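Sample 3 of the quickstart, ligand adenosine-5'-triphosphate:
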Amino acid sequence: MNKVIAIANQKGGVGKTTTAINLAASLAATKRRTLLIDLDPQGNATTATGVPVETIQTLYSHYFEKTPIKECIQKTSDLYDVIPGGEELIALEVAIRNDGNQGFLSSSIKELGDLYDYTIIDTPPTLNQLTIEGLFCASGTLIPLQCEYYSLEGVTGLMSTIETLSNKSMTTNRVLGIVRTMVDMRNNLAKEVSEELEKHFPSLVFNTLIPRNVKLAEAPSHGVSGIKYMPNSYGAKAYLALAGELIRRIEYV
Ligand SMILES: Nc1ncnc2c1ncn2[C@@H]1O[C@H](COP(=O)(O)OP(=O)(O)OP(=O)(O)O)[C@@H](O)[C@H]1O
Ligand SMILES: [Mg+2]
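Result:
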C-alpha cells in the first residue's frame, strides 16, 4: 500500500524540504519504492532533485492541461522519483479554491495505485490550500521543528487542523511524529526546548535528532540528497536513522 506522508510546519525555514528530500532518499535506499511530491511554489525540493527545468511538468499541467499524473513523474539521480513543483503551483492553489475542488490531489494519487510504497509530500510554509491538499491525502504527517523559543507556536495549530480534518472524516491523517532539526546541543536553549518537547509529546517526538550539518545544506546545489552527496556525513546518517524509526512506526504496528 502506498503510504502517503506530508511534511508540514507553517513556520518557514525549519527543515521541511531538507527532511522531505533526505527522507525520500533514505527510504529509497532501503529499497522502498518512493515518490516525492513538491507542493511548494518555491520549488526548493525540485531544485534539490536536480531534474532539468525544461522537462518539468508539475501538478499545474495535471490540473489545467489534463496531463496524466504518471507523466509528471520524473526519475532523480537518487533512487526515488519526483513530481516537481514551482511557481505554477500558485495558480493551482487559487484554482482548487475557486473551483471548490478540495481533495483533488487525493484522487490523483489514487490513480498511482500501488506503484509506490511511500509518497513524501513537501508542503509550503503556510496553511494554504496546497498544504491542506497535502494533509488531506496523507495518512500521516511529520512535523520538522527547530528547537527555538517560538518553535512550538503554530505546531498546535497544525495539529488541531489535522484533527479537525480527521474528525470530519475527510482524511485518516494523523501526526506521525515531530522531528527535531538543525540540532546543536551545545546551545542551552535548544537543549531546554528539546527536553520540553520530550516531556510534552513523549510518544510523538522521534528519538533521532537531525544535527546541524553543512553537508545537508550543500547537497541541493549539486542536485542530489545529502544521502547521495556525502553518505558518511552526520546529517546523512541521521536521516537514514530517521527513516528506520519511521519504518518501525509505520510498518511494524
Ligand atoms: N540539518 C541541517 N543542517 C544544516 N543546514 C540545514 C539543515 N536543515 C536545513 N538546513 C538549511 O536551512 C535552510 C532551511 O531549510 P529548508 O529549506 O529545508 O526549510 P523549509 O522548512 O523547507 O523552508 P521553507 O519554509 O522556506 O520551505 C536551508 O538553507 C537548508 O539547507
Ligand atoms: Mg521548503
